[in-house]
Amino acid sequence: MNYWKQQYTEAKTHFQTSLSRIKGVILGFNVNLDKIIEITPEILEEILLNFEFPNLFLTKSSPSEINSIEDLMCSLINAIKTGKADESLIFSEEICVWIEDHFRVHKTQIGGQAGIMANFLPKIGVNNILLNLPFYSNEVTRLLDSSIKILEENENTTDHRKKEYDRSKIEPISHYVFEFKEGIYQVGNKKIHCKRPNRFIASFDEINSELKLSKKFIEYSNSSIQNYSLTVISGFHLIKPKIPSLTYSKMLKPVITLLRTWKELNPSLNIHLELTVTKNKKLRNTIIKEIFPLVDSIGMNEQELLLLLEVQHPSIYTTIKDNLNSINIFEGLLKVLEVFQDKHFILHNLGYYLFLSKNLNNEKMIQRKNSLLLASLFAAVRAEKGDLFSLDDLPEEAIGPSESGKREIQILTKHFEEVFSKTHTLSTTGMLKTSNFDLIAIPTIIVESPRMLVGLGDTISLIAALFGVLEDT
Questions:
Q1: Higher confidence at residue 421 or residue 108?
Q2: DSSP 361-390
Q3: What percent of the chain is helix, strand and coil (3-state, nearest 5)?
Q4: Distance between CA 225 and CA 451 in Å, rounded?
């Protein structure tokens, strides 16, 4: 434990000395309003009084889309039962009205990977931030940090905080984040045990589904791309063609063109793709085929890894989907690396993070390990406090990582010792270099009673990508 406490302390020092080397960050393409709804056993039991046969929600699997209130409740209860993060799309404003009439929205905050990351960066001292904002309203711009550069179509100024949007109370970028607690939940005459706090997101999004890029954002980013060292892209899971002839590939074409232009103008720019739950298999395959080749690194959690494997390696998916221990997660990630050998992969799981790549020297491996430790530290602060409000929120003394995370890495270490027939030090150094892959594994800080769940994965991948590429800048 003393070793890892020391590593966290050194990573914090690394952060303080490295911050000045960050040139700037571009973020796109999803920004929305996250409406946070707290779910406890008592709250769910009260909601279920509205239904005559609540037991039926336990007999159905989660639908790929939410087209009815029954679909919503089935998805929410399945997420609680498994303790897994999940997200589904809503296509009816009436369902949103029902949600707001029956649940209490605890708070509204900026959501979407791009929006969450953009709002987080100024709090750690990064100020050169460019965000593609697809939708303008008082609520959205009020919640965005004033230092973030946004560009609106057909306007001369680069920052707008006043534009009104005349619409009913349900804005077309409303994502309902149901944060459920650990505990015993009563569903009809059945009890389900939720072993892990997590969240289910029901997304009503008529804006990000169109993947809008403003001409001014394109023009400005192209002309100033030398001022940025990292771009993080995300939100593709939301896209949905409104007409049959508009395929996923056609919808992604403007983004693909933009990414290629950025790389041509600034070859040292690092592009990171942050995945999220994408239930449509055709869309998943399109993202893999069209977007993966253009990026340098890809971030995901264990559920998003499974969705990749389901379309790329179905046999591996079937083997590991019900037993997500560290060995199976690593083996699944390695299968993805075998196809995309020039990419870096960041996987965040409760208790430990993995970084998998090829051809890293020792200096770069240490840099990457420090970036994962920083990601764990910042995520823990956000979970404990409900957010990170300034760098003063960072703990003065070193924090020890979780015992569960250490055990999983020890299991992984033993696995490698059996495979390679020699002793390895992954569990004591966090690093393993082989002829086929380079692996970094760190035990993370776990907050027992988190005040915040949504956006933690985005925080992890952002910090890991941001501070992991400094050696190349």
A1: 108
A2: -HHHHHHHHHHHHHHHHHHHHHHHHSS--S
A3: 45, 20, 35
A4: 37
